[in-house]
Amino acid sequence: MPQFRYVTEIQVEDSEWDPSSHSQEHTQYNLLAAKGLPRGFNTIYDFGLGIGKQFRSFVDSLEEHTTRSILRFVGDGDEGLDEDGLTLRVKFSRFSEYRAAVDLYRDRGWTVVRRVIEAETHNAIAPLFDLPEAEPIRGRHPMVKLLTEEVATGHVMNVTDRELLADAVTNAAPVLAGEAPERLVKLRDDIELVSLDALISQFERDLSGRFASNEGHWQGFFNRNRFALQLLFAAPVSVEWQQAHVRSSDATGSGARIADFLCANVVTKTVLLVEIKTPGATLMAAQAYRGQGTEAAVHVPHKELAGAVAQVQSQMSSISQHFPQMIPSTSTVDPWNQPQGAVIVGRVSTLTSEQRESFLRYRDGLADVTVLAYDEVLERLKGLREMLGASPGSP
After folding, report:
1. Mean pLDDT value across residues 326-345
2. Of the residues 186, 191, 279, 391, which has the fewest C-beta atoms closer than 10 A?
């Protein structure tokens, strides 16, 4: 997946670069790494050369003002847009000042988190010894004061500050696990619930918004939130591949069959192929096949539903025929087991009562293919949120 919206190539000008000695083994990860890249760049080939993750907002900010595809870091000379129409030149010194500022605030954020947790740890045991409650040390620096206020009370900071704070919490987690493990567990649980709330809110909003008929958006959503896929099936499921080729193309480039997600039951190693359609897809034909206008009306599946089911069925048939030759062996998937299929499509809430009955009959009659509507997925996410938010011992 590309790191940025427009930038596809990052160039680094270095007059001292030695082409005969350009790589070395990384001292920490024991992987091949590029030599000579400035601080703030990822040097390990396996991880992908480029800007370090914590500094990529520098490029994101540049892309708000230009769509140039080549970003060239230079030691001196002019900055700005090159006449070739492709390149943006930026001095190392500009990026270095930005990197140093980010590092500084990340360190301050870590300090703030530690101070707030120290106060919370004290307050947790204070009643046992009749001690007064403690307030976090806010320090003298204005930014440290603001960070402390945000951590302690949940307000004041802007989006960038919160991103820095999240990074600081991530870095501090190993220390917190040793110093105050119960507080770390509580913090983790709170974060998970807030994240799930945000996920549900986004999911519900996009069902009828501008993404309702955008298949790429929903494929990206489930790829970013794979646990939502795992939640849908009554089995221990892992996502193995996205856009998996279960049948390769012929010499003309046609004939390929590609599943949106290839999953595996981690116990039985059964393949589960998942097709992601949109919540805006039509499930049942509007005109009744029989009994129009009566309670006995029978509706046939709309071509969007029937086509999606036929698509995943064709992929299932390709698993045992073609997949073993494409991927001879794997520890998590056995293509000889009976493959299963799943389609996420449409919304049941858009159906009339007669259409809903026909839909349920059609779905129940499918062999080895599970059909789930988006509003059913939403209710399962809400059910998970309710379960995780319930107090221990509550009914």
Report:
1. 70
2. 391
